[in-house]
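Trying the structure run again after the queue cleared.
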Amino acid sequence: MGILRQTQQQYYQGTDLGNYQFITLEEVINQFMVAYVGEEKLINKARKTDVQFHAMRGLQELSFDTFKSTKAYEIKVPDSLQIMLPHDYVNYVKFSWSDSAGIEHVLYPAIKSSNPLAPAQQDDGDFVFQTDDELVNNGDYSTSLSNSLWEKSTVTKDKTLTGPFDGGANADEANGPEVTRDDRIETSGGQLAVTTSNFLWRGRKQNNVASRCYAVWQEIDVSKFTTLTMSAIATSHASGTIHGPGIIKFGLSTEPGTNSTNPYNSGPNAALHQKNVNPAYIPGGFLEWSDGNATATSKTIDNVDVSNYTTLYVVLSFRTVWSQFGGGTGTEFEATNFIDDVSVQFTGEPDSLKLDYESETWNSYKNHVSIDTIDKYDDGTYDLIVGERYGLDPKHAQVNGSFYIDDLRGVVNFSSSVLGKNVIIKYISDSLGTDSEMQVHKLAEEAMYRYIAHAILAGKANVPEYIVNRFKKEKFAAIRQAKLRLSNIKLEEITQILRGKSKRIKH
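Done. Tokens:
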């Protein structure tokens, strides 16, 4: 009949420490079915699914104000002064930040501030409405690049050597006549075609093989839009004996492409050389083709968030990774990638309001610098009237900072004084986040049985009301008892607190 399932050695050498004080929700359900449901019992019949539902509801309700279910995260406040709410957050217990000594300083809620929805407005005060517009000019390449808003990297003609390679000590060094590799960026058959070839750089050695990375870009205005949809059709060329598949990227970037198409990534211009390889795409705002199936493939991405931007660049990136050098002048030493029907448009509800992500209220709150490091939120007009200031809100008469929870966006906003500090979020969940959390403290086990029994009887037909009321009283009594048990009140600790209150305070 013992319930210990492991030896003492297994316990002390394991990671499941202190878990004997809990019983799993599954065990609660099974034991309830055995003890409370059946013939000659008050609940003669009940589905296990019903018991499971009420058990989970009881676990939720008791987690809010009975169980010791407080969770905590320590998160460093970034420059944005915002952190995301935990994934299983229900309500907060306390916000604080810890100093160099590990002491927690309580943050107070800023109930007089918020981050409301802010419709974009024109200079005359009229609202800005989103429309179903195509933002890319000549995205189908029906005309040449020069006759549209597209810009492109300057095509470089690299000189290199043809093979074969020498034997002996110079086996990996190229020989042969010098030839020019002819890269191309052009419209062909209503598509944008980018052709790159291999060449040797920094010497004659075979392991110095490279190919340039080109970009084509176009500036677009996104100031009137909150979210956009992106789509394109691209063809990634197949792998060859001396190169991998084509790599095509299409996305919205905060920076345009560049003429620095050099393949190497070292030296003082390393970052510049990599701009076309890895454009500064916004989060969730790019598509990539690198499968090498040599087939035109359509891709789309919806709900790209552009609410924080006014101007962006549609940047197309094309490159091929060469595994080894191949001498010669034929088409086998070049590779071509294609893209067509490049589209960036708003496809949401037409004529809806464009909403700015950050309201002026939030901007003012996060940019406010407290006077004399005190979070007072006033202009200091009456600070010189010493001893005559009335009505000061005590929660603002402190240096710890403040916060407010933006439930609409699922983030916590902090005042500027909290920047860079390690904030501790203590919160409660409903204990249903994961399977391992679905457990009940043994001091509240009886409360769970009474909760389930009352819920089952209250939901059944033809159950006498006095029976329902009886179990209702027993439920509340069991919950009160569980709260007292879990409060963990110790006589010695209370005595110590009372002794501390007897200290004389000098004025």
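The chain has three domains: 23-69+432-486, 70-116+359-428, 145-345. Worth checking whether this holds up in the mutant runs.
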